[in-house]
């Protein structure tokens, strides 16, 4: 079955995942500089992708205590693994909004209308990708 939604390919997820990996690899993860502003970044990405944050859902979803929940999302068309085939670190941060959307409680799926503007970094990355694509398809002189 082909996944309808691939978490690692959604806007903002790769940067967040890389940041979480740097924190995990830090000699003392509790003091990693990447922790500064992390919760705000998670909320910004979750709000953009799902229209909800964990705080707005009002509950946390501990995946380590409920591993069957990942299977439920996979059945609904989600690919939640990184390129290495392992579950993404950011999945825990997005679990509550993901389940709220999947259950129809609130929020929206990433492919539904979203009015949140791109950040400056995301807009620059998109412009660069579009310019590269244009260059590929321009006729050679």
Report how far apart the termini are.
Answer: 43 Å
β-strand percent reads under 5%
The total count of helices amounts to: 6
Q: Kindly report the oligomeric state of this protein.
A: single chain
Order of helices and strands: EHHHHEHH
**Rg:** 17 Å
Mean pLDDT: 86
Counted up, domains total 1
Shape assignment:
globular
Residue share in helices? Answer: 40-55%
Low-confidence stretches: none
Q: Based on DSSP secondary structure assignment, what is the total number of beta strands?
A: 2
The major beta sheet can be summarized as: 2 strands, parallel
Adjacency order of strands in the biggest sheet = 1-2
Structural class: mainly alpha
Draw up the topology in text:
Layout: E1 5-6, H1 13-25, H2 38-50, H3 54-57, H4 68-75, E2 78-79, H5 91-102, H6 120-137
Parallel strand pairs: 1-2
Notes on the structure:
It is built from 6 helices and 2 strands; from the N terminus they run βααααβαα. It has helices at residues 13-25, 38-50, 54-57, 68-75, 91-102, 120-137; strands at residues 5-6, 78-79. With 141 residues, it is mostly helical. The model has no long low-confidence stretch (mean pLDDT 86). The N and C termini lie far apart (43 Å). It has one domain. It has a two-stranded parallel ribbon. It is globular, with a radius of gyration of 17 Å.
């Amino acid at each position: 079955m082909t996944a309808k939604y691939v978490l690692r390919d959604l806007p903002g997820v790769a940067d967040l995942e890389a940041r979480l990996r740097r924190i995990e690899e830090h000699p003392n993860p509790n003091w990693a500089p990447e922790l500064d502003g992390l919760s705000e970044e998670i909320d910004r990405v979750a709000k953009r992708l799902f229209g909800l944050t964990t705080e707005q859902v009002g509950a946390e979803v501990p995946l380590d205590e409920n591993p069957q929940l990942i299977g439920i999302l996979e059945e609904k068309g989600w690919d939640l693994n990184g390129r290495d085939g392992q579950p993404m670190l950011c999945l825990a941060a997005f679990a509550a909004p993901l389940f709220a959307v999947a259950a129809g409680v609130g929020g929206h799926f990433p492919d539904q209308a979203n009015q949140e503007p791109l950040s400056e970094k995301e807009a620059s990355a998109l412009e660069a990708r579009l310019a590269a694509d244009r260059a590929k398809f321009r006729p050679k002189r």
